[in-house]
Amino acid sequence: MNGIGGVIAAVLVAGAQIAAVAVGGPLLVGVMRKVRCHIEGRVGPPIHQPLRDLRKLFSKQRMRPDQASWVFGVGPVVLVATAVLIAAISPLATTRPPLGQTADFFAIVFVLLLGSVALALAALDTGTPFGGMGSSRAMTIGALAEPALLVAILAMSIPAHTSNLPALVRIGLAHPQLIASPERFLALGSFLVVILAESGRLPVDNPSTHLELTMIHEAMVLEYAGPDLGLVILGESMRLALLLGLLVNLLIPWGIADRPGAAALVIGLGALVGKVVVAGIVIATFEVFTAKLRLFRLPELLAGAFVLAVVGAFTALVIR
Amino acid sequence: MTIRSILQAIVHPRTVTEDLGPPSQVAADVPRLAGSLQLRHVDAGSCNGCELEITSTFGPVYDAERFGARLVASPRHADALLVTGPVTKNMVGPLVKTFEAMPEPRIVIALGDCARDCGVFRGGYGVEGPVGDVLPVDLQVPGCPPNPEAIVRALRGLTGR
Amino acid sequence: MSNLSLVITAIAGLSAAIAGCALPAKTRVQAAVAFTWGACIAALVGALAVLHTGHAMVLNSSRILPLTGVTMVLDPLGAVFVVVTAVVAIASTLYWLGYASHGLSTRTASAALPIFVTSMLLVPAAGSVATFLWLWELMALSSLLLVLVDQRRREETRSAAQWYAVMTHAGASAILFALVMLSAHAGNQTFAAIRIHAVHLPAAVRNTAFLLALVGFGSKAGAVPLHVWLPKAHPEAPSPASALMSGAMVNLGIYGIVLVGDRLLGGGPAWWWLTVTAVGVVSALFGALHAATSTDLKRLLAYSTADNMGLVLIGIGASGLFAATGHPAIAAIAMVSALLLTVNHAAFKGSLFLSAGSVQVATGSRDLDRLGGLMRRMPITGVVFLVGGLAIAALPPLNGFVGEWLLFQSLLHGLPTSSTAVAIAVPVGVAALALTGGLTAAAFVKAIGVGFLGRPRSEGAATAHEVPRTMQLGAALLAGACVVLGVVPMIVLPALERAAAEAVPGAPAHSLRASVDLRLAGLQGVLAPALLAAGLALAFVAVIAMRRLAQRRSHLRVALRRAEPWGCGRELQTARMQYTATSFAEPLQQVFDDVLRPDRDLDVSHLAESRYYTEKIAYRTSIGDVIEHNVYRPMIGAVNVWGQWARGLQNGSVHRYLAYGLVVLVVILAVIV
């Protein structure tokens, strides 16, 4: 059964997770927009509008600045490719994803960083001031968010004696007291702030702003058209769905498939979708009542996340 | 705002949006946009009356977004160029640059009487001409200013919803 | 037989130097390079044999150096450093072939470079105090000559060489004291004898020796606060020499610390290693911050060297700390990670310095604010710099990522411990690792993006074209090493394990099982770099195929259109409107304003007729090194003051000099009698 059967099963699981994230990412963004519209008192676009937008974008013309190099076209591709790879190997629907033994949390963070760096380089390749501005701000925020992220990973890895992500989820399933512990909450709180920073949501960045000088992430993609823009939007929504999926599975792992088999996988996918939608609704509601922070107040926010993570790490050390 | 009121707002929204009837007809020569229309607005010299109507169109009462239309910041992201006002001499260059920055297939919408035939500003010393003199116009929305229902009707004709 | 390789290395190196001195200009560089390659290959073969068999190579001769003799012992730890130096030297000398027309074809330079390479190859093989110090001095002097190559053209070169000379000799004196103290107590100057005798040393002697060695070798490695020569000397040296200095010479500082701390003294109390870790943390953060805010390409690379050496020191400190608290297995993993970081750094820093040199040659400038658009004009150099930059930012699937993963794992798994020192040091180490990773990524996005992408910001950048083939090849060789080490790190890991076993007493034979994936023995920690790379490549190809499919189905007349960049309808868009390196780093500079203390100068001049109209406003800002400004300059000022006072003693009066002689004679007679 292992061998060819195992490989086919792994490919199917990977395909299912990638499809869930690729289709679910834009739907998640649609849900978040819909929640915002309803709280604002209007009907708003339907939930599948982002998918319609993507379909239209892929049939439009590609454009490229006349003095840009090959890096401009490769940026969006690397962004989506890294998201696809992480979607395949992360414990989203099952605790035994393909290549799961290599799905180290540290590795996942750095593969996602590769996507961000590729987009930042492509933005500088446009030769416009907006690209440089977006790139500079995004890299600054990334640099300040990384300590919080890695120390949060350390805090979660200490009680489990491993930083392997599927193992962390499995251990959470088997020992719920590891999840209901202060260090896990502190670490996940810090992780949530980092997710908001990295995906460009309020209070860090307003995803629907028109004012170029207030943009952080949007400024990097002002120059993309057609399929390139579609890839960027797809990649960003996949990253958001992915990171929220990891967050909810570390907080509430129940529902994830723990045994092999199609039925368990389907239940796992359903649980994932449900949990991520709830997380998205909570974040969207929070966004309605938050204003965007001034750019130079962001280091304070990220330092706060870092302090949370450090307290979590020390708690993990002390409690053992 | 309590949790209960927030949850109620999400599940049973009390919207103020008006119901504008069944989907509209799709014009024969409209490119296949399939329910998704991104608009880039350029004020080529208007008195801002049309801008106020556009703001209303995307506001809670008329809510053009529910039909798939959205305003975007960069012409590279846009399908349609929404031009208001007569084209003044200083705005000819930027307007043409904006149009050329858009990827194909692209549409030009001339909104308001000024964009169609210079309206009350015809013959002014700073006015170059109507939008049709500068760019190939695909759709015109008459009115000074056109009311939001007319604008929404025009946009629905483009998105086909 | 294998002992011969060291002899061949020395002879080949000497011949290279003689060829460089004696031959006419047309052939001297080629001959010197050929002989240097012979030396490198001989050293490489010998070192690989040592790593393969695990047996050290010993060579004794009392005839070469009078009074002390020469003792060479190449053990696996030293062999790792020899291999690294040899590979970097082969690439740099290959680069030198194409670079020679830019000032490196003089007799001095052609003799100094081979001597520099040979001494660096032989330092890790030194087996006695005298041999070590002779080779160390030779290395320092030859590198000083190389830094001085450009001194007639640039004022800063002389100042940089002065700083370098003083600091390297101050470091050498510290090393001299430490080693001489140890050999005096042992009664014999060979390292083997010192090691045997080390257990009998009193604690005060051990502590003093270790601290002096840390100061001396740390200064060579670029540890903050002894790093101030690095950002001055490395940029001023010609590019092949910079690559050798950053890629091979700073490693020898690390070798020295491991030599004295672990090999000679056999490990020490926890506070030694906490000090090393603290120095590492400060170096990493300081170096990364200055790299992120620097606008001079080579200065950025030099500060980044200090940053990477800080990470290596964190690994070494963690290793010693775990060994001192009784966890030799984790200590071995930490030492392997430190050695892997060193090897990785040599590969990517070497390629970065060589391509930066190519940029300088092609555009005439190393100021990032004047570069841009080079990826289209210098495609190979651009790709090499991109690979080096992504590797140093620790991005998969390149080598920097594997090294940092291993360091993180060793810190994580060292944590279940009862020692408070470890419990504090590890989270601090992880936080430092993370922040420097982020700052380095920002620094290199800036260097690659502002330097190579976008539009050219000056005439020099606009008229640049690709450099000669040998220069491209030299840099590409090291970039290729980055890729290979990133996808299959297992080819070096067994050798590094063997070297780490030398440094950490009591380590198990195999702490890492490395086949297709890397596993930590007895712990849960796995990484499969080859599978990650394959997955990324597959995903990349799939996404490109999807995009192409979408384009084909769109039935557009023109699927990809080149157009002017969108500038909000502006009529005139120039290259100067782009972000510069200064503006890119400005948010980080604001956040870390207290640490960086930039100098700001605002000069407003008014019209003669009225004070209410300004004629010109000039704004200057620069970031200097805070430590140099606040620590070194006052020290230099104090030394100057003392020197001025001492001048009063020599006022030219013969009577006073005779009086000095009389007083000293009387004092000596009084003491003796």
Description:
The complex is a heterotrimer of chains A (320), B (161) and C (673). Chain A has 320 residues and is mostly helical. Chain A is globular. Chain A has 11 helices and 1 strand; from the N terminus they run H-H-E-H-H-H-H-H-H-H-H-H. Chain A is 70% helix and 1% strand. The longest helix of chain A has 37 residues, at 4-40. The mean pLDDT of chain A is 92. Chain B has a single domain (37-159), classed as 3-Layer(aba) Sandwich (Rossmann fold), CATH 3.40.50. In chain C, 69% of the residues lie in helices and 6% in strands. Chain C contains 25 helices and 8 strands. In chain C, a hairpin with a 5-residue loop joins strand 4 (518-520) and strand 5. In chain C, helix 10 (239-264) runs antiparallel to helix 13 (328-363). The model of chain C has no long low-confidence stretch (mean pLDDT 90). Chains in contact: A-B, A-C, B-C. Chains A and C meet through strand 1, helix 3, helix 4, helix 5 and helix 9 of A and helix 15, helix 16, helix 17, strand 5 and helix 21 of C. Strand 1 of chain A pairs parallel with strand 6 (560-563) of chain C, so a sheet runs across the interface.
Percentage of residues in helical conformation of chain A: 55-70%
Unreliable stretches of chain B: none
**Oligomerization:** heterotrimer
CATH architecture of chain B: 3-Layer(aba) Sandwich
The number of strands of chain B is 7
Q: Compute the number of strand runs of chain A.
A: 1
Distance between the termini of chain A: 41 Å
The gross shape of chain A turns out to be: globular
Structural class of chain B: alpha/beta
**Rg of Cα set of chain B:** 17 Å
Beta-strand percent range of chain B? 15-25%
| Share in β-strands of chain A | under 5%
**What is the mean predicted local confidence, pLDDT of chain B?**
88
What share of the residues of chain B lie within helices?
A: 25-40%
